[in-house]
């Protein structure tokens, strides 16, 4: 499900009070998720990847058919290198991904802001990551006080990020 229509996460929570919805903590180790992409409101089915300072799996996944999904990247909140930059983000746009949420850093932020892609991350840094082919995909991630499973639905905007087991739109 590709959620390119505008929505407000606050309203999604209010309108779906009968459902279990996780809200990612607004502050994690003193950092907060913020928008870096051209889409400030995005959501869809989740694809998960866990990698630490190695964006090999991120690059591989975003070069596949996104079908309006959102890649959620657990980068261990590393502030030492970026897991997403303009070239990989451009691949995501070309392959139909709705967005990328990075529990870590991104780079090339001026270019990311011009792309039709939702991007949220904790911070930006100019340092690129290494590529050693390390990372796990399709696993349950845990950060911000929420568990995020492959196949969940995630919605993000300037108010925050929410996670549900079923589509909210």
Report on the structure:
The chain has 169 residues and is of the alpha/beta class. It is 16% helix and 34% strand. The chain has helices spanning 9-15, 56-62, 86-94, 109-112, and strands at 2-3, 21-23, 34-35, 42-50, 70-74, 82-84, 99-106, 118-124, 136-137, 141-143, 146-148, 153-157, 160-164. Strands 1, 2, 3, 4, 5, 6, 7, 8, 9, 12 and 13 form an 11-stranded mixed β-sheet that branches. The longest helix is centred in the middle third of the chain and has 9 residues, at 86-94. It starts with a strand and ends in a 5-residue tail after the last strand. The model has no long low-confidence stretch (mean pLDDT 95).
Percent of residues in helices: 10-25%
Low-confidence stretches: none
- Tell me the fraction of residues in β-strands, as a range: 25-35%
Distance between the termini: 9 Å
Please state the overall shape, judged from the principal axes of the Cα atoms. globular
- Structural classification: alpha/beta
Structure summary, number of beta strands? 13
Instruction: Report mean pLDDT, rounded to a whole number.
Output: 95
Task: Tell me the layout of helices and strands.
Blueprint: E1 2-3, H1 9-15, E2 21-23, E3 34-35, E4 42-50, H2 56-62, E5 70-74, E6 82-84, H3 86-94, E7 99-106, H4 109-112, E8 118-124, E9 136-137, E10 141-143, E11 146-148, E12 153-157, E13 160-164
Parallel strand pairs: 4-5, 5-7, 6-7, 7-8
Antiparallel strand pairs: 1-4, 2-13, 3-8, 4-9, 4-12, 10-11, 12-13
Considering the chains and any ligands shown, give keywords for the structure.
4 helices; 34% strand; two-stranded antiparallel ribbon; 169 residues; eleven-stranded mixed sheet
């Amino acid at each position: 499900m590709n959620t390119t229509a505008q929505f407000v996460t606050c309203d999604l929570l209010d309108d779906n009070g009968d459902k279990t919805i996780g809200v990612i903590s607004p502050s994690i180790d003193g950092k907060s998720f913020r928008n870096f992409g051209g889409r400030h409101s995005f959501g869809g089915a989740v694809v998960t990847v866990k990698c630490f300072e190695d964006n090999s799996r991120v690059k591989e996944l975003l070069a596949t058919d996104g079908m309006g999904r959102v890649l959620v990247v657990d980068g261990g909140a590393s502030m030492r290198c970026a897991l997403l930059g303009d070239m990989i983000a451009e691949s995501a746009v070309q392959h139909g991904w709705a967005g990328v949420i990075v529990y870590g850093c991104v780079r090339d932020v001026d270019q990311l802001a011009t792309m039709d892609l939702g991007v949220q991350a904790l911070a930006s840094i100019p340092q690129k990551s290494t590529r050693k082919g390390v990372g796990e995909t399709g696993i349950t991630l845990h950060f911000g006080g929420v568990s995020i499973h492959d196949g969940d639905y995630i919605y993000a905007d300037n108010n925050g990020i929410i996670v549900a087991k079923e589509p909210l739109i």
